[in-house]
Amino acid sequence: MTTDYIPSYLNPNDLGPWGQYLQQVDRVAPHLGSLSRWVETLKRPKRILTVDVPIERDDGTIAHYEGYRVQHNLSRGPGKGGVRFHQDVTLSEVMALSAWMSVKNAAVNVPYGGAKGGIRVDPATLSKGELQRLTRRYTSEISMLIGPTKDIPAPDVNTNEQVMAWMMDSYAMIEGNLSTGVVTGKPVSLGGSLGRREATGRGVFVVGQEAAARRGVALAGARVAIQGFGNVGGTAATIFADAGAKIVAVQDHTGTIVRDGGLDVAQLHKHVAEAGGVQGFPGADATLDRDAFWDIESDILIPAALERQITAEVAARLRTKIILEGANGPTTPEADDILADKDVLVVPDVLANAGGVTVSYFEWVQDFSSFFWTEDEINARLTRIMQSAFGAVWDVAQEKKVSLRTATFIVACTRILQAREVRGLYP
Ligand SMILES: NC(=O)C1=CN([C@@H]2O[C@H](COP(=O)(O)OP(=O)(O)OC[C@H]3O[C@@H](n4cnc5c(N)ncnc54)[C@H](OP(=O)(O)O)[C@@H]3O)[C@@H](O)[C@H]2O)C=CC1
Ligand SMILES: O=C(O)CCC(=O)C(=O)O
Protein backbone atom coordinates (compact mmCIF):
# COMPACT_ATOMS: atom_id res chain seq x y z
CA MET A 1 0.00 0.00 0.00
CA THR A 2 1.37 3.41 -0.92
CA THR A 3 -0.70 5.54 1.42
CA ASP A 4 1.26 7.40 4.10
CA TYR A 5 -1.48 8.08 6.61
CA ILE A 6 -2.23 5.35 9.14
CA PRO A 7 -4.74 6.45 11.80
CA SER A 8 -3.28 6.09 15.28
CA TYR A 9 -6.38 4.25 16.47
CA LEU A 10 -5.99 1.32 14.03
CA ASN A 11 -3.52 -1.55 14.11
CA PRO A 12 -0.85 -0.51 11.55
CA ASN A 13 -0.04 -4.18 10.88
CA ASP A 14 -3.62 -5.06 10.03
CA LEU A 15 -5.77 -2.20 8.86
CA GLY A 16 -8.58 -4.62 8.03
CA PRO A 17 -11.29 -3.45 5.59
CA TRP A 18 -10.04 0.15 5.89
CA GLY A 19 -6.72 -1.00 4.38
CA GLN A 20 -8.65 -2.60 1.53
CA TYR A 21 -10.44 0.72 0.87
CA LEU A 22 -7.14 2.68 1.02
CA GLN A 23 -5.65 0.41 -1.65
CA GLN A 24 -8.66 1.13 -3.87
CA VAL A 25 -8.15 4.88 -3.40
CA ASP A 26 -4.49 4.54 -4.31
CA ARG A 27 -5.55 3.00 -7.62
CA VAL A 28 -7.82 5.91 -8.51
CA ALA A 29 -5.51 8.76 -7.48
CA PRO A 30 -3.47 8.83 -10.73
CA HIS A 31 -6.69 9.35 -12.70
CA LEU A 32 -7.95 12.42 -10.84
CA GLY A 33 -5.93 15.11 -12.61
CA SER A 34 -5.74 18.39 -10.66
CA LEU A 35 -8.23 17.05 -8.09
CA SER A 36 -5.60 14.58 -6.88
CA ARG A 37 -4.29 17.29 -4.52
CA TRP A 38 -7.47 16.65 -2.50
CA VAL A 39 -7.17 12.86 -2.43
CA GLU A 40 -5.98 12.77 1.18
CA THR A 41 -9.51 13.91 2.11
CA LEU A 42 -10.76 10.50 1.03
CA LYS A 43 -8.27 8.76 3.34
CA ARG A 44 -9.43 10.49 6.52
CA PRO A 45 -12.95 10.01 7.83
CA LYS A 46 -14.50 13.33 8.76
CA ARG A 47 -15.99 12.19 12.05
CA ILE A 48 -15.86 9.02 14.15
CA LEU A 49 -18.03 8.35 17.17
CA THR A 50 -17.50 5.31 19.38
CA VAL A 51 -20.18 4.71 21.99
CA ASP A 52 -20.78 2.37 24.89
CA VAL A 53 -24.26 0.88 24.59
CA PRO A 54 -25.39 -0.58 27.93
CA ILE A 55 -28.67 -2.50 28.26
CA GLU A 56 -30.46 -4.38 31.00
CA ARG A 57 -30.74 -8.03 29.96
CA ASP A 58 -33.95 -9.95 30.60
CA ASP A 59 -32.30 -11.68 33.57
CA GLY A 60 -31.54 -8.34 35.26
CA THR A 61 -27.81 -8.25 34.45
CA ILE A 62 -26.27 -5.27 32.65
CA ALA A 63 -24.51 -5.90 29.34
CA HIS A 64 -22.31 -3.44 27.42
CA TYR A 65 -21.80 -3.36 23.66
CA GLU A 66 -19.49 -1.28 21.50
CA GLY A 67 -21.20 0.90 18.91
CA TYR A 68 -19.98 3.22 16.16
CA ARG A 69 -21.17 5.86 13.74
CA VAL A 70 -18.64 7.09 11.21
CA GLN A 71 -19.22 9.98 8.82
CA HIS A 72 -16.61 9.57 6.14
CA ASN A 73 -17.32 12.53 3.87
CA LEU A 74 -20.08 15.14 3.87
CA SER A 75 -18.98 17.23 0.89
CA ARG A 76 -21.99 16.37 -1.27
CA GLY A 77 -24.72 16.28 1.36
CA PRO A 78 -25.75 14.71 4.67
CA GLY A 79 -24.25 11.40 5.75
CA LYS A 80 -26.07 8.31 4.53
CA GLY A 81 -25.52 4.65 5.19
CA GLY A 82 -26.78 1.63 7.06
CA VAL A 83 -26.35 0.23 10.55
CA ARG A 84 -24.93 -3.26 11.03
CA PHE A 85 -25.44 -5.51 14.06
CA HIS A 86 -22.81 -8.26 13.96
CA GLN A 87 -20.39 -9.86 16.39
CA ASP A 88 -17.41 -9.11 14.12
CA VAL A 89 -18.07 -5.37 13.65
CA THR A 90 -14.89 -3.31 14.14
CA LEU A 91 -14.05 0.35 13.77
CA SER A 92 -11.95 -0.46 10.69
CA GLU A 93 -14.95 -2.17 9.12
CA VAL A 94 -17.35 0.69 9.85
CA MET A 95 -14.79 3.21 8.53
CA ALA A 96 -14.47 1.27 5.27
CA LEU A 97 -18.22 0.82 4.95
CA SER A 98 -18.73 4.57 5.50
CA ALA A 99 -16.15 5.38 2.82
CA TRP A 100 -17.73 2.96 0.37
CA MET A 101 -21.02 4.80 1.03
CA SER A 102 -19.38 8.12 0.01
CA VAL A 103 -18.23 6.51 -3.24
CA LYS A 104 -21.51 4.70 -3.86
CA ASN A 105 -23.70 7.74 -3.26
CA ALA A 106 -21.57 9.79 -5.63
CA ALA A 107 -21.51 6.98 -8.23
CA VAL A 108 -25.31 7.03 -8.54
CA ASN A 109 -25.32 10.79 -7.95
CA VAL A 110 -27.69 10.90 -4.98
CA PRO A 111 -27.06 14.06 -2.91
CA TYR A 112 -25.41 12.47 0.10
CA GLY A 113 -22.06 12.05 1.73
CA GLY A 114 -21.08 8.68 3.20
CA ALA A 115 -21.66 7.30 6.69
CA LYS A 116 -22.15 3.95 8.38
CA GLY A 117 -22.84 2.60 11.84
CA GLY A 118 -22.66 -0.64 13.70
CA ILE A 119 -22.79 -2.45 16.99
CA ARG A 120 -20.46 -5.31 17.87
CA VAL A 121 -23.16 -7.77 18.93
CA ASP A 122 -24.60 -11.08 17.79
CA PRO A 123 -28.30 -10.18 17.68
CA ALA A 124 -29.22 -13.89 17.72
CA THR A 125 -28.17 -13.91 21.39
CA LEU A 126 -30.74 -11.21 22.32
CA SER A 127 -34.48 -11.44 22.91
CA LYS A 128 -36.73 -9.08 20.95
CA GLY A 129 -37.04 -6.82 24.01
CA GLU A 130 -33.24 -6.73 24.47
CA LEU A 131 -32.78 -5.91 20.79
CA GLN A 132 -35.24 -3.04 21.08
CA ARG A 133 -33.46 -1.65 24.18
CA LEU A 134 -30.09 -1.97 22.43
CA THR A 135 -31.37 -0.16 19.33
CA ARG A 136 -32.96 2.65 21.31
CA ARG A 137 -29.90 3.17 23.52
CA TYR A 138 -27.61 3.20 20.48
CA THR A 139 -29.87 5.75 18.75
CA SER A 140 -29.77 7.93 21.83
CA GLU A 141 -25.96 7.68 22.01
CA ILE A 142 -25.51 8.76 18.37
CA SER A 143 -28.44 11.21 18.33
CA MET A 144 -26.17 14.26 18.24
CA LEU A 145 -24.81 13.15 14.87
CA ILE A 146 -27.93 11.96 13.05
CA GLY A 147 -30.96 13.83 11.69
CA PRO A 148 -32.90 14.21 8.43
CA THR A 149 -30.45 16.83 7.09
CA LYS A 150 -27.35 15.61 8.99
CA ASP A 151 -26.96 11.85 8.70
CA ILE A 152 -29.62 9.29 7.81
CA PRO A 153 -29.14 5.64 8.88
CA ALA A 154 -30.76 2.66 7.13
CA PRO A 155 -30.71 -1.16 7.36
CA ASP A 156 -27.63 -3.32 6.76
CA VAL A 157 -26.65 -6.79 7.97
CA ASN A 158 -28.99 -8.03 10.73
CA THR A 159 -31.04 -4.82 10.87
CA ASN A 160 -34.43 -4.41 9.24
CA GLU A 161 -37.63 -2.34 9.08
CA GLN A 162 -38.44 -3.03 12.74
CA VAL A 163 -35.02 -1.78 13.86
CA MET A 164 -35.50 1.36 11.72
CA ALA A 165 -38.94 1.93 13.31
CA TRP A 166 -37.36 1.80 16.79
CA MET A 167 -34.59 4.17 15.69
CA MET A 168 -37.10 6.63 14.27
CA ASP A 169 -39.24 6.49 17.39
CA SER A 170 -36.27 6.96 19.74
CA TYR A 171 -35.07 9.95 17.74
CA ALA A 172 -38.62 11.39 17.68
CA MET A 173 -38.78 11.11 21.48
CA ILE A 174 -35.49 13.02 21.82
CA GLU A 175 -36.44 15.70 19.27
CA GLY A 176 -40.09 16.04 20.25
CA ASN A 177 -41.33 15.73 16.67
CA LEU A 178 -42.07 12.91 14.22
CA SER A 179 -38.90 13.17 12.03
CA THR A 180 -39.73 10.36 9.61
CA GLY A 181 -36.75 11.41 7.44
CA VAL A 182 -34.16 10.53 10.10
CA VAL A 183 -33.90 6.92 8.88
CA THR A 184 -34.85 5.07 5.70
CA GLY A 185 -35.82 1.46 5.19
CA LYS A 186 -38.76 2.02 7.57
CA PRO A 187 -42.02 0.04 7.42
CA VAL A 188 -44.31 1.42 4.70
CA SER A 189 -46.88 2.20 7.40
CA LEU A 190 -44.37 4.65 8.99
CA GLY A 191 -43.27 6.56 5.90
CA GLY A 192 -41.17 3.81 4.35
CA SER A 193 -41.03 3.44 0.59
CA LEU A 194 -42.57 0.73 -1.50
CA GLY A 195 -39.77 -1.27 -3.10
CA ARG A 196 -37.04 -0.39 -0.54
CA ARG A 197 -36.89 -3.89 0.90
CA GLU A 198 -36.19 -5.38 -2.53
CA ALA A 199 -34.22 -2.40 -3.91
CA THR A 200 -30.66 -3.65 -3.37
CA GLY A 201 -31.35 -7.06 -4.91
CA ARG A 202 -33.26 -5.42 -7.76
CA GLY A 203 -30.35 -3.07 -8.43
CA VAL A 204 -27.97 -6.06 -8.49
CA PHE A 205 -30.24 -7.59 -11.14
CA VAL A 206 -30.32 -4.41 -13.26
CA VAL A 207 -26.52 -4.14 -13.38
CA GLY A 208 -26.43 -7.90 -13.95
CA GLN A 209 -28.55 -7.45 -17.09
CA GLU A 210 -26.19 -4.73 -18.31
CA ALA A 211 -23.06 -6.75 -17.59
CA ALA A 212 -24.49 -9.93 -19.11
CA ALA A 213 -25.47 -8.11 -22.30
CA ARG A 214 -21.93 -6.77 -22.67
CA ARG A 215 -20.39 -10.19 -21.96
CA GLY A 216 -22.77 -12.05 -24.29
CA VAL A 217 -24.30 -14.10 -21.43
CA ALA A 218 -28.02 -14.88 -21.83
CA LEU A 219 -29.81 -14.54 -18.49
CA ALA A 220 -32.36 -17.19 -19.41
CA GLY A 221 -30.67 -20.41 -18.37
CA ALA A 222 -27.62 -18.66 -16.87
CA ARG A 223 -26.05 -20.48 -13.91
CA VAL A 224 -26.07 -18.20 -10.84
CA ALA A 225 -24.35 -18.92 -7.50
CA ILE A 226 -25.15 -16.75 -4.47
CA GLN A 227 -23.39 -16.37 -1.13
CA GLY A 228 -25.82 -14.95 1.46
CA PHE A 229 -29.57 -15.43 1.39
CA GLY A 230 -30.68 -12.39 3.39
CA ASN A 231 -32.18 -9.17 2.12
CA VAL A 232 -29.77 -8.77 -0.80
CA GLY A 233 -28.99 -12.37 -1.78
CA GLY A 234 -32.53 -13.63 -1.21
CA THR A 235 -34.11 -10.89 -3.34
CA ALA A 236 -31.51 -11.22 -6.08
CA ALA A 237 -32.19 -14.98 -6.19
CA THR A 238 -35.91 -14.38 -6.68
CA ILE A 239 -35.49 -11.79 -9.43
CA PHE A 240 -32.82 -13.75 -11.33
CA ALA A 241 -34.94 -16.92 -11.12
CA ASP A 242 -38.00 -14.98 -12.37
CA ALA A 243 -35.87 -13.90 -15.35
CA GLY A 244 -35.18 -17.56 -16.18
CA ALA A 245 -31.74 -17.94 -14.58
CA LYS A 246 -30.89 -21.15 -12.68
CA ILE A 247 -29.84 -20.58 -9.07
CA VAL A 248 -27.41 -23.50 -8.91
CA ALA A 249 -25.89 -22.83 -5.46
CA VAL A 250 -26.69 -20.85 -2.33
CA GLN A 251 -24.55 -20.51 0.78
CA ASP A 252 -25.32 -18.97 4.16
CA HIS A 253 -23.69 -19.54 7.53
CA THR A 254 -25.72 -22.75 8.05
CA GLY A 255 -24.51 -24.45 4.88
CA THR A 256 -24.03 -24.66 1.11
CA ILE A 257 -26.73 -26.22 -1.07
CA VAL A 258 -26.64 -26.99 -4.78
CA ARG A 259 -29.02 -28.10 -7.52
CA ASP A 260 -27.69 -28.35 -11.03
CA GLY A 261 -31.10 -27.79 -12.62
CA GLY A 262 -31.72 -24.74 -10.41
CA LEU A 263 -33.13 -24.45 -6.86
CA ASP A 264 -36.80 -23.62 -6.36
CA VAL A 265 -36.26 -20.16 -4.88
CA ALA A 266 -39.80 -19.63 -3.55
CA GLN A 267 -39.62 -22.95 -1.67
CA LEU A 268 -36.15 -22.06 -0.40
CA HIS A 269 -37.47 -18.77 1.03
CA LYS A 270 -40.16 -20.74 2.90
CA HIS A 271 -37.58 -23.20 4.21
CA VAL A 272 -35.25 -20.40 5.41
CA ALA A 273 -38.13 -18.61 7.16
CA GLU A 274 -38.95 -21.81 9.06
CA ALA A 275 -35.51 -23.38 9.58
CA GLY A 276 -33.41 -20.20 9.96
CA GLY A 277 -31.02 -21.11 7.14
CA VAL A 278 -30.56 -23.00 3.88
CA GLN A 279 -29.19 -26.16 5.51
CA GLY A 280 -31.56 -29.11 5.21
CA PHE A 281 -33.50 -27.74 2.22
CA PRO A 282 -35.21 -30.83 0.79
CA GLY A 283 -35.16 -29.45 -2.76
CA ALA A 284 -31.34 -29.51 -2.97
CA ASP A 285 -29.36 -32.19 -4.83
CA ALA A 286 -26.55 -32.04 -2.30
CA THR A 287 -25.02 -30.14 0.58
CA LEU A 288 -21.37 -29.16 0.14
CA ASP A 289 -18.54 -28.20 2.47
CA ARG A 290 -18.25 -24.45 2.97
CA ASP A 291 -15.12 -24.03 0.93
CA ALA A 292 -16.42 -26.07 -2.05
CA PHE A 293 -18.85 -23.22 -2.84
CA TRP A 294 -16.05 -21.41 -4.66
CA ASP A 295 -15.43 -24.34 -7.02
CA ILE A 296 -18.95 -24.40 -8.44
CA GLU A 297 -19.03 -23.46 -12.10
CA SER A 298 -21.33 -20.51 -12.84
CA ASP A 299 -21.97 -17.74 -15.31
CA ILE A 300 -22.72 -15.23 -12.57
CA LEU A 301 -21.49 -15.23 -8.97
CA ILE A 302 -23.17 -12.95 -6.43
CA PRO A 303 -21.35 -12.53 -3.10
CA ALA A 304 -24.08 -11.08 -0.85
CA ALA A 305 -22.75 -11.71 2.67
CA LEU A 306 -19.69 -10.01 4.17
CA GLU A 307 -16.32 -8.47 3.28
CA ARG A 308 -13.15 -10.20 2.09
CA GLN A 309 -14.73 -13.46 0.99
CA ILE A 310 -13.03 -13.53 -2.43
CA THR A 311 -9.36 -13.65 -1.51
CA ALA A 312 -6.48 -14.23 -3.93
CA GLU A 313 -6.68 -17.97 -3.21
CA VAL A 314 -10.44 -18.06 -3.93
CA ALA A 315 -10.09 -15.86 -7.04
CA ALA A 316 -7.57 -18.27 -8.53
CA ARG A 317 -10.08 -21.12 -8.18
CA LEU A 318 -13.24 -19.34 -9.36
CA ARG A 319 -14.90 -20.54 -12.56
CA THR A 320 -17.34 -17.79 -13.43
CA LYS A 321 -17.74 -15.02 -16.02
CA ILE A 322 -19.34 -12.19 -14.07
CA ILE A 323 -19.23 -11.22 -10.38
CA LEU A 324 -21.97 -8.92 -9.10
CA GLU A 325 -20.93 -7.60 -5.69
CA GLY A 326 -24.14 -7.49 -3.67
CA ALA A 327 -22.07 -7.38 -0.46
CA ASN A 328 -19.83 -4.49 0.46
CA GLY A 329 -16.14 -5.21 0.10
CA PRO A 330 -16.32 -8.94 -0.78
CA THR A 331 -13.22 -8.90 -3.02
CA THR A 332 -9.69 -8.08 -1.86
CA PRO A 333 -7.47 -5.92 -4.13
CA GLU A 334 -5.16 -8.91 -4.69
CA ALA A 335 -8.15 -10.97 -5.83
CA ASP A 336 -9.24 -8.11 -8.11
CA ASP A 337 -5.94 -8.38 -9.98
CA ILE A 338 -6.27 -12.13 -10.42
CA LEU A 339 -9.86 -11.79 -11.65
CA ALA A 340 -8.77 -9.14 -14.16
CA ASP A 341 -6.09 -11.52 -15.47
CA LYS A 342 -8.75 -14.23 -15.81
CA ASP A 343 -11.02 -11.79 -17.67
CA VAL A 344 -13.80 -12.11 -15.08
CA LEU A 345 -16.03 -9.03 -15.22
CA VAL A 346 -16.45 -7.66 -11.67
CA VAL A 347 -19.28 -5.17 -11.11
CA PRO A 348 -18.10 -3.54 -7.87
CA ASP A 349 -20.13 -3.11 -4.69
CA VAL A 350 -20.12 0.69 -4.97
CA LEU A 351 -22.13 0.31 -8.17
CA ALA A 352 -23.80 -3.11 -7.98
CA ASN A 353 -25.47 -2.69 -4.58
CA ALA A 354 -26.34 1.00 -4.92
CA GLY A 355 -30.01 0.21 -5.55
CA GLY A 356 -30.69 0.17 -1.81
CA VAL A 357 -29.46 3.66 -1.12
CA THR A 358 -31.09 4.90 -4.32
CA VAL A 359 -34.53 3.86 -3.07
CA SER A 360 -33.58 5.15 0.40
CA TYR A 361 -33.11 8.48 -1.34
CA PHE A 362 -36.59 8.13 -2.88
CA GLU A 363 -37.95 7.34 0.59
CA TRP A 364 -36.31 10.44 2.09
CA VAL A 365 -37.68 12.65 -0.71
CA GLN A 366 -41.17 11.15 -0.28
CA ASP A 367 -41.03 11.74 3.50
CA PHE A 368 -40.13 15.42 3.00
CA SER A 369 -42.95 15.96 0.52
CA SER A 370 -45.45 13.59 2.23
CA PHE A 371 -46.32 12.32 -1.23
CA PHE A 372 -45.74 8.66 -2.02
CA TRP A 373 -45.03 7.02 -5.35
CA THR A 374 -46.29 3.65 -6.59
CA GLU A 375 -44.02 0.62 -6.58
CA ASP A 376 -43.92 0.68 -10.39
CA GLU A 377 -42.76 4.31 -10.32
CA ILE A 378 -40.07 3.45 -7.78
CA ASN A 379 -38.82 0.45 -9.74
CA ALA A 380 -38.80 2.36 -13.04
CA ARG A 381 -36.80 5.25 -11.51
CA LEU A 382 -34.42 2.81 -9.83
CA THR A 383 -33.84 0.96 -13.10
CA ARG A 384 -33.11 4.21 -14.96
CA ILE A 385 -30.59 5.39 -12.37
CA MET A 386 -28.78 2.04 -12.18
CA GLN A 387 -28.62 1.67 -15.98
CA SER A 388 -27.35 5.17 -16.44
CA ALA A 389 -24.73 4.83 -13.67
CA PHE A 390 -23.55 1.52 -15.15
CA GLY A 391 -23.33 3.06 -18.65
CA ALA A 392 -21.27 6.02 -17.43
CA VAL A 393 -18.88 3.75 -15.52
CA TRP A 394 -18.59 1.33 -18.45
CA ASP A 395 -17.58 4.17 -20.79
CA VAL A 396 -14.89 5.40 -18.39
CA ALA A 397 -13.56 1.86 -17.97
CA GLN A 398 -13.30 1.45 -21.76
CA GLU A 399 -11.74 4.86 -22.30
CA LYS A 400 -9.13 4.58 -19.53
CA LYS A 401 -8.66 0.81 -19.79
CA VAL A 402 -9.30 0.26 -16.08
CA SER A 403 -11.52 -2.12 -14.11
CA LEU A 404 -15.15 -1.24 -13.41
CA ARG A 405 -14.15 -0.68 -9.77
CA THR A 406 -11.50 1.89 -10.62
CA ALA A 407 -13.85 3.48 -13.17
CA THR A 408 -16.60 3.78 -10.54
CA PHE A 409 -14.09 5.36 -8.14
CA ILE A 410 -12.99 7.79 -10.88
CA VAL A 411 -16.58 8.92 -11.55
CA ALA A 412 -17.49 9.11 -7.85
CA CYS A 413 -14.28 10.58 -6.41
CA THR A 414 -14.29 13.27 -9.11
CA ARG A 415 -17.79 14.30 -7.96
CA ILE A 416 -16.81 14.23 -4.27
CA LEU A 417 -13.59 16.17 -4.73
CA GLN A 418 -15.15 18.72 -7.09
CA ALA A 419 -17.70 19.44 -4.36
CA ARG A 420 -14.89 19.67 -1.79
CA GLU A 421 -12.92 22.05 -3.97
CA VAL A 422 -15.79 24.36 -4.85
CA ARG A 423 -16.90 24.57 -1.21
CA GLY A 424 -13.41 25.53 -0.03
CA LEU A 425 -11.85 24.71 3.32
CA TYR A 426 -12.31 27.57 5.76
CA PRO A 427 -15.35 28.17 7.99
N1 LIG B 1 -29.62 -4.34 3.01
C1 LIG B 1 -29.23 -3.45 2.10
O1 LIG B 1 -30.04 -2.66 1.60
C2 LIG B 1 -27.82 -3.43 1.62
C3 LIG B 1 -26.89 -4.39 1.98
N2 LIG B 1 -25.64 -4.37 1.42
C4 LIG B 1 -24.65 -5.38 1.77
O2 LIG B 1 -25.10 -6.68 1.38
C5 LIG B 1 -24.56 -7.66 2.27
C6 LIG B 1 -25.69 -8.48 2.86
O3 LIG B 1 -26.57 -7.60 3.54
P1 LIG B 1 -28.08 -7.97 3.85
O4 LIG B 1 -28.57 -8.91 2.83
O5 LIG B 1 -28.77 -6.70 4.11
O6 LIG B 1 -27.90 -8.71 5.24
P2 LIG B 1 -28.84 -9.80 5.90
O7 LIG B 1 -28.55 -9.74 7.34
O8 LIG B 1 -30.25 -9.66 5.44
O9 LIG B 1 -28.29 -11.17 5.28
C7 LIG B 1 -26.94 -11.54 5.38
C8 LIG B 1 -26.81 -12.89 4.73
O10 LIG B 1 -25.43 -13.23 4.68
C9 LIG B 1 -25.26 -14.51 5.28
N3 LIG B 1 -23.94 -14.66 5.87
C10 LIG B 1 -23.41 -13.98 6.91
N4 LIG B 1 -22.17 -14.41 7.15
C11 LIG B 1 -21.92 -15.35 6.23
C12 LIG B 1 -20.81 -16.17 5.95
N5 LIG B 1 -19.68 -16.07 6.67
N6 LIG B 1 -20.90 -17.06 4.92
C13 LIG B 1 -22.04 -17.16 4.21
N7 LIG B 1 -23.11 -16.41 4.43
C14 LIG B 1 -23.06 -15.53 5.43
C15 LIG B 1 -26.34 -14.58 6.30
O11 LIG B 1 -26.55 -15.92 6.64
P3 LIG B 1 -27.15 -16.32 8.05
O12 LIG B 1 -28.51 -15.71 8.11
O13 LIG B 1 -27.13 -17.78 7.96
O14 LIG B 1 -26.22 -15.71 9.07
C16 LIG B 1 -27.50 -13.99 5.52
O15 LIG B 1 -28.04 -14.94 4.63
C17 LIG B 1 -23.71 -6.88 3.28
O16 LIG B 1 -22.39 -6.81 2.81
C18 LIG B 1 -24.33 -5.49 3.23
O17 LIG B 1 -23.45 -4.48 3.67
C19 LIG B 1 -25.29 -3.44 0.49
C20 LIG B 1 -26.16 -2.48 0.10
C21 LIG B 1 -27.46 -2.33 0.71
O1 LIG C 1 -30.03 2.68 2.23
C1 LIG C 1 -29.08 3.27 2.73
O2 LIG C 1 -29.13 4.40 3.14
C2 LIG C 1 -27.74 2.61 2.88
C3 LIG C 1 -27.66 1.15 2.57
C4 LIG C 1 -26.29 0.67 2.88
O3 LIG C 1 -25.89 0.65 4.01
C5 LIG C 1 -25.39 0.28 1.82
O4 LIG C 1 -25.64 0.60 0.65
O5 LIG C 1 -24.37 -0.37 2.10
Automatic annotation (TrEMBL):
Pfam families, A to Z: ELFV_dehydrog, ELFV_dehydrog_N
Name of the protein in its database record: Glutamate dehydrogenase
Every Glutamate/phenylalanine/leucine/valine/L-tryptophan dehydrogenase C-terminal domain range: 193-424
Species classification: Bacteria, Pseudomonadati, Pseudomonadota, Betaproteobacteria, Burkholderiales
InterPro entries: Aminoacid_DH-like_N_sf, Glu/Leu/Phe/Val/Trp_DH, Glu/Leu/Phe/Val/Trp_DH_C, Glu/Leu/Phe/Val/Trp_DH_dimer, Glu/Leu/Phe/Val_DH_AS, Glu_DH, NAD(P)-bd_dom_sf, NAD_bind_Glu_DH
PROSITE patterns for this protein: GLFV_DEHYDROGENASE
Source species of the chain: Telluria mixta
Family to which the UniProt record says this protein belongs: Belongs to the Glu/Leu/Phe/Val dehydrogenases family.
Keywords: Oxidoreductase
